[in-house]
From TrEMBL:
X8 domain ranges (all copies): 31-114
Species classification: Eukaryota, Viridiplantae, Streptophyta, Embryophyta, Tracheophyta
Keyword Membrane: yes
Protein name: MAJOR POLLEN ALLERGEN OLE E 10-LIKE
Membrane topology: Lipid-anchor; GPI-anchor
InterPro entries per UniProt: X8 (IPR012946), X8_dom_prot (IPR044788)
Main location: membrane
CC per GO annotation: plasma membrane; plasmodesma; side of membrane
Signal sequence, start to end: 1-26
Keywords tagged on the record: Glycoprotein, GPI-anchor, Lipoprotein, Membrane, Signal
PANTHER family from the UniProt entry: BETA-1,3 GLUCANASE, CARBOHYDRATE-BINDING X8 DOMAIN SUPERFAMILY PROTEIN
Annotated compartments: Cell membrane
Amino acid sequence: MAKAVAALSLLLLVLYLSSGGDSARANEQKTWCVAKPSSDQATLLANINYACTHVDCQILQKGCPCFSPDSLINHASIAMNLYYQCKGRNQWNCDFRNSGLIVVTDPSYSDCIYA
């Protein structure tokens, strides 16, 4: 029995290493979640409220780096991205009832750095 377990462990290790192992993660493309420009104001506000009940949205407060521009689309995009990043960057973490959009271009601006 011990030989079978050892052989299986060795096989799994070989498969893991041949698949790229940890190097596969290092090559993943960075993605962000932003609000779709077609989203209505009520949806954007709901997205901010939902995301900010699950993640820290302090960077959106007045005087913080991401407050300006003070618009729902900007604040929703930042809140949605914070949620998306914290929850594992899965497609479903950016759905927000089909009002989220996963992008590959960093949406950071000025001193507002998207996580």
